[in-house]
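#struct-help
A.M.: can someone run this one for me? Single chain, 351 residues.
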Amino acid sequence: MAGDTSVLQPISFSGEGRTRMAGERYVDHKVLKAFAQSKVNVPPGEAKERRRQVNHLRQRLEGYIAAHPDFDLVKLRASGSTAKHTAIRRKSGTGSDADVAAYLHTSNTGIDVSTMLTWLRDRCIEVYGATKDEVDFKPWDHAVGITMSSGLKIDVVPVLYTGEPDDRGYLVTADGTKVLTSVTLHLQFMTTRKDKAGDGYREVIRLLKAWVRQSKEADTELRCKSFLLELLVAHLWDVGWNGKPLQVDDYPAAIEQVLSYIVRTGLKTPIVFTDYYKTDAVDATTEPIQIWDPVNPENNVARGYTEEHRQRLVNQARRTLDTISMAAYAATKGEALDAWRELFGPTFPGE
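D.P.: on it. Structure tokens below:
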């Protein structure tokens, strides 16, 4: 594969005055770990503030429920990247900082599934009363975004709850589509692998998210959702790649493995997890990319991705592999850093 360092060969670089092994990279695990800590990961103080504001929102909503027995909000669960500890620093004006799943009971109510998001927005406005402006509450796709006075953005995601165990319920999109999910099982899916792999498992995910974000700045048509990345990493942790386990303690190697998998398979090989159902439970489909939700065998996480989207992502992974390979053989540290800046932007290495 591109950038393979399994065989070290001495290479003389003009101007360095020494012979350097091809595997002795200027950008190694230590460099990427430092970069992740300084520029990718959410700082501890900010993470603490996110949790405080999310808990405040949950307390406000739960207090409202207690005072209004007809309020059909059953329970709230922290969800998404923040709950899974795979969130990265948000760039100004983009994305959300945290997610809260709002489980709604629909029996004997007048809630119209097709207008669920509007209904939930109105309930959130009621909860906050006159303390916030209505413009701070915006429905989008499958959530109601709330902008706090601090600038923190929280997505409240409606989940139709029918009493099933493990917090199973149905996400409701803007067009009224219902998709089975479980916040609890998704967290368990992540935790099971992280506990075996160690902290590097989630760090690799965060670094890949930073790569995708930078890639999207260069190609606005590129599609690769965060959950898809998480599942690619989970798959390679489960089965390995090219005869080796996922190198979660060597971030450059792990990134190469994921990118090589994307390039070599072209993302044409279906990925199915058997934590909560059997392989034959998945629905047959002809969609270009098939990566199945580990909780819902009817949900292809890449549903809606076209053949062009698949090719764009594969080509971007190929270009990135070439860049990493050039960095590995760079004659100077400056050249190596310049190459990696193509992956992560001008702030790399974050010194």
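A.M.: thanks! The CA atoms of residues 9 and 21 lie 6 Å apart.
D.P.: also worth noting: Confidence is low (pLDDT under 50) at residues 1-23.
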